[in-house]
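RECORD TYPE: inverse folding
INPUT: structure tokens
STRUCTURE:
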């Protein structure tokens, strides 16, 4: 499962991997706009702007991966 888009979190990359099923799902999820969060310290920016630069904020990708496969995500961190 190292090539499916979940491995990049282990290495601390901020770039979204756009290959494979999971990569595409994460890419789409990261485009969503979400409000500021006091818990994570997120500033509430439009993630789509970061995605255009082939980057995504960590919390969007992390949440998307958790929604897809929570157990696998916990194993990889």
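DESIGNED SEQUENCE:
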């Amino acid at each position: 499962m190292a090539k499916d888009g979940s491995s990049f979190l282990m290495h601390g990359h901020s770039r979204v991997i756009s290959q494979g099923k999971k990569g595409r799902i994460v890419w789409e999820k990261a485009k969503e706009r979400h409000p500021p969060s006091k818990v994570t310290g997120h500033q509430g920016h439009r993630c789509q702007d970061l995605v255009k630069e082939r980057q995504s904020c960590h919390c969007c990708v992390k949440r998307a991966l958790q929604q897809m496969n929570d157990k696998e995500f916990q194993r990889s961190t």
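NOTES: Confidence is low (pLDDT under 50) at residues 1-20.
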